[in-house]
Design a protein that fits this description.
single chain, alpha/beta, 22 helices
C-alpha cells in the first residue's frame, strides 16, 4: 500500500518550500505595488525562519536519534529529507537575493534606499558616528573568545557581529551581540527615506568597539535553533500547573540545537572553523545572504511613506465591511432569527464582538464558553469575556498554551482571564485544542437556548484583517447541543465523545470525511468534491481521493500550502485538480463540499487534511444547513476556482504554473473586496431610507443576499 501511494504523492517539506517560492513569486509580480513586493520578501524570510525552527528542527531530532523510519509518501528517511532540504536552500537564497536587489534598485527611484557603508556621504558618516557613540556603543556587550573568555551562547534569530582581532601578533575572535532594544535600521537626515541597517552600522564602526585591536574579516551572523519543543515529550509533574510547565519549556527553547547559520559575507577560514565547531553544524548548514536576515523593519518602513507616495507603492487601503444592518440592534436576536456568516477580511469581526459584548450584560445569558488558540496583543474579546465573568456569567475559556510562538502571549492572557473570574482549562497533555468554537447559553421559554459560533480562523482581531476565514453563527439547537457536549467533554478530559452534527477530531472528523468521499465515489462520474484547506498530508484521505478520481469523480482541491497529493497522474489522480492562491491576504479558510445542488453537504471548521489535525489535535468542523449560506459558500469556492490572476495549478511533476486566463481575468480576493463594499453600501442605503416597520421591501433587504455583483 505504501509503495502504491508513492506513485502519486510528494514530500511534505519540499512541497512547503514550493509554497514559499510562490510567496516569493509575489515579490516579482509587477502588478503588485512595489513596497508590497518588498513585504512579500519579508514574509518569505519569516516563513523560512519558522520552517527551519519547526520542520527542520523536528527532522533534526529524528535523525539525531538514529531513526531510519521512512516517509510513507516518498520513502525518504529524516536524514535524506534534510539533505534534500539543505540542497534546495542554495537556489532559494540566491533567488531571494536577486529579488531583493532588484526591489532596492526600483525603490531608489522613489527616494527609498537602504544604504551600505561605502555609499555614505562624509556628512552622513559623521552623523552616524555620533549616533553610534551616543546611542549604540553604551548598550553593547562585546567580548573576545579565548581560554579565559568562553564562546557565548548564541540566541535564536539574534544578530551577532564577529571579526578576527589581532594584538601583539596574537589573533582571536571578537563577538558583539546586536541588542534587541536597538532599532533594526537607522534613518538618515534628509527628505528621502535613506537608512542603514543596525548590523551595517556596527560593522562600519566596529573599530571603535575593539579599539585596542586590529580588526579584520568583519561579518554578521545569525543562528536558527530547533524550536520544536513538545510538552508531551517532557516529564510533567501532575501537581504542577501546566502554565508553569510551559514557562519552563519556553526557557528550554532558547538553548536547543542550531539547525542553520546565516552570514552576510563568506566566512574567513578561522571564523568558519570556530562557528562550525561551537554551533555543531556542517558547512552545508551555513548560508550566505545579501538580503537582511531579519526584515521586521519593512513593516515600520511602510508607515513612514508619505500618503501621496503610498498611493503608488502600497495596496489601496481596504476596511473590512460591516454588512449586517445596524438597525436590527441586538445580534443575539438577529442570530435567533437566522444564521449569520461572516467572511474575513472582507467583512468585519465587529458583529461577533458586538454579540459577545451584548452577551456579557444580557440578563438571559447564563454562560459563555470558548476555545482560544491565538489572540491579538490587544484583544477586545478578552475584555468582553472578563466583563461577562464580572457580571456573574459563567465564563469558561479553554486556552491552548502550546500555540506555537504564541505560548507566552496565551500564558499572559490566561492569567488575565483567571484574575477576572473566568474558569480556565488547558486541554489535553498530548493533544492541542485547535478548534474555534464559542457557545452562548441563554434562558429560553422552553429551557436552554444556544447560540454557537464556529469558525475556520482564530479570534484574533489583527489577523482577521489579514487572513481569509469564515465564521458561522447559528442558533441551530442540534449544533448548540453538540457544542455543549463538546465543552463538557473538554472539561472532563473525554476525547471520545459522540456528536450528532459536529465533526470532531481525533474521533470523527477523518472517518466522516472518508465516508463522505466514499459516498461521492459511489456516484462515479456524477460525483463532485470541492475542498479548500491549507495543507493536504493525511495518507488515508489522499488514498480515498485517489479512489474517487479513479471512479471518475471530479475532485477540485484549493490548497494554499503543502499538498502531498499530485494531480493528473495517469491511473491514480487523473480527475483531480489542485489550485493554490497566494495574494494580498493569506488564504486560511477550510471548506469541505460533497455533491451538487440542494443535496450538497457542506462543512467549515478548523481542521486541515493533515495527520496532525486528524490524529493529534482537537478540531471542530460544523455542517452548514442554511440553504442561502450554502449557496453563498458555493459561490465563494467557484470564484476561487475561476481565479486567473493569483491562482496557480499544481502539475503532476510537483511544479506549479499560472492558470491560463482563457479570455477571463478574475482575481478572487479583489472580487470579494468589491462585493463586500457593494453589499455594505446596499445595507447603508436601505437604512438611510428606512421605511416604517413592517415594510416588505426593507424586510427583504435585511435578509443578507450575495449576488454576482
Amino acid at each position: 500500500m505504501a509503495e502504491e501511494i508513492r506513485n502519486y504523492t510528494q514530500n511534505r517539506e519540499l512541497s512547503w518550500l514550493a509554497f514559499n517560492a510562490r510567496v516569493l513569486d509575489e515579490a516579482t509580480d509587477p502588478m503588485v505595488p512595489l513596497l508590497e513586493r518588498l513585504k512579500f520578501v519579508a514574509i518569505f524570510t519569516s516563513n523560512l525562519d519558522e520552517f527551519f525552527m519547526i520542520r527542520v528542527g523536528s527532522l533534526y531530532d529524528i535523525a539525531a536519534l538514529g531513526n531510519t523510519a521512512r516517509d510513507s509518501r516518498t520513502g525518504m528517511t529524516a536524514t535524506e529529507q534534510l539533505e534534500r532540504i539543505y540542497a534546495a536552500m542554495g537556489p532559494l537564497y540566491a533567488r531571494r537575493d536577486r529579488v531583493y536587489r532588484a526591489l532596492q534598485q526600483e525603490l531608489c527611484t522613489w527616494g527609498i534606499r537602504s544604504v551600505s557603508p561605502d555609499e555614505l556621504t562624509p556628512r552622513e558618516k559623521k552623523y552616524l558616528k555620533n549616533y553610534f557613540r551616543e546611542q549604540v556603543l553604551p548598550l553593547l556587550s562585546p567580548q573576545i573568545v579565548d581560554p579565559s573568555h568562553p564562546f557565548p551562547h548564541l540566541g535564536n534569530k539574534e544578530l551577532y557581529i564577529i571579526a578576527n582581532l589581532t594584538r601583539k601578533k596574537e589573533t582571536m575572535m571578537g563577538i558583539v551581540p546586536v541588542p534587541s532594544m536597538l532599532p533594526e535600521v537607522v534613518y538618515l537626515p534628509g527628505e528621502d527615506l535613506r537608512f542603514i541597517s543596525m548590523e551595517n552600522l556596527l560593522l562600519t564602526f566596529l573599530d571603535l568597539v575593539f579599539d585596542q585591536y586590529q580588526v579584520s574579516d568583519k561579518n554578521c551572523i545569525c543562528v536558527t535553533r530547533n524550536a520544536d519543543i513538545s510538552p508531551d515529550d517532557e516529564l510533567f509533574d501532575v501537581e504542577e500547573d501546566f502554565r508553569c510547565h510551559m514557562k519552563k519549556l519556553l526557557h528550554k527553547r532558547r538553548r536547543m540545537a542550531v539547525v542553520r547559520v546565516e552570514t552576510a559575507y563568506p566566512l574567513e577560514k578561522h571564523l568558519e572553523a570556530v562557528i562550525t565547531r561551537r554551533c555543531s553544524v556542517e558547512k552545508s548548514q551555513i548560508f550566505q545572504t545579501a538580503a537582511p536576515m531579519k526584515m521586521d523593519y519593512v513593516y515600520a518602513l511602510l508607515t513612514k511613506v508619505p500618503p501621496a507616495m503610498g498611493q503608488a507603492l502600497l495596496y489601496p487601503p481596504f476596511t473590512p465591511q460591516d454588512t449586517l444592518p445596524a438597525g436590527q440592534g441586538s445580534m443575539l436576536k438577529l442570530v435567533r432569527k437566522r444564521d449569520v456568516l461572516l467572511s474575513f477580511p472582507y467583512e468585519s469581526m465587529d458583529p461577533f464582538l458586538r454579540m459577545l459584548r451584548e452577551a456579557a450584560s444580557d440578563p438571559d445569558v447564563v454562560s459563555i464558553r470558548i476555545t482560544i488558540y491565538r489572540l491579538a496583543r490587544n484583544a477586545r474579546l478578552v475584555e468582553y469575556l472578563c466583563a461577562a465573568a464580572e457580571n456573574g456569567k459563567e465564563v469558561t475559556v479553554l486556552i491552548e498554551l502550546r500555540a506555537r510562538f504564541d505560548e507566552q502571549n496565551n500564558i499572559d492572557w490566561s492569567e488575565r482571564l483567571e484574575a477576572a473570574g473566568c474558569r480556565i482549562l488547558y486541554g489535553f497533555e498530548t493533544y492541542k485544542v485547535h478548534s474555534k468554537v464559542c457557545l452562548i447559553t441563554m434562558r429560553g421559554k422552553h429551557g436552554a437556548q444556544y447560540i454557537t459560533q464556529i469558525g475556520t480562523g482564530n479570534y484574533n482581531e489583527k489577523t482577521a484583517a489579514l487572513y481569509t476565514d469564515l465564521s458561522l453563527i447559528t442558533a441551530d439547537p442540534g449544533i448548540g447541543a453538540d457544542a455543549a457536549r463538546f465543552f463538557k467533554n473538554m472539561a472532563i478530559g473525554n476525547l471520545n465523545g459522540s456528536y450528532d452534527h459536529l465533526l470532531v477530531s481525533p474521533v470523527s472528523f477523518r472517518q466522516t470525511l472518508l465516508e463522505l468521499i466514499a459516498g461521492e465515489t459511489a456516484k462515479g462520474e456524477a460525483g463532485h468534491i470541492v475542498i479548500k484547506c491549507n495543507s493536504v498530508t493525511d495518507c488515508d484521505l489522499i488514498r480515498s481521493l485517489s479512489r474517487a478520481s479513479r471512479a471518475g469523480v471530479r475532485v477540485e482541491l484549493i490548497v494554499r500550502g503543502i499538498c502531498c497529493i499530485l494531480p493528473g497522474v495517469p491511473g491514480y489522480t487523473e480527475h483531480i485538480t489542485v489550485t493554490s492562491l497566494v495574494g494580498r491576504y493569506l488564504e486560511h479558510a477550510r471548506i469541505y463540499a460533497f455533491g451538487d445542488g440542494a443535496e450538497r453537504k457542506l462543512f467549515i471548521g478548523s481542521a486541515d487534511m493533515m495527520t496532525r489535525n486528524t490524529e493529534r489535535r482537537v478540531e471542530v468542523v460544523t455542517p452548514v444547513y442554511d440553504p442561502a449560506l450554502k449557496q453563498e459558500i458555493g459561490q465563494y469556492l467557484d470564484i476561487q476556482l475561476r481565479d486567473t490572476v493569483k491562482a496557480r495549478e499544481l502539475l503532476s511533476d510537483g511544479t506549479y504554473r499560472k492558470k491560463d486566463p482563457a479570455g477571463e481575468t478574475l482575481c478572487a480576493q479583489e472580487w470579494f473586496m468589491a462585493d463586500a463594499v457593494r453589499r455594505a453600501g446596499e445595507v447603508r442605503r436601505a437604512e438611510e431610507h428606512r421605511p416604517s416597520a413592517g415594510d416588505g421591501l426593507f424586510a427583504r433587504l435585511l435578509v443578507r443576499f450575495h449576488g454576482n455583483g
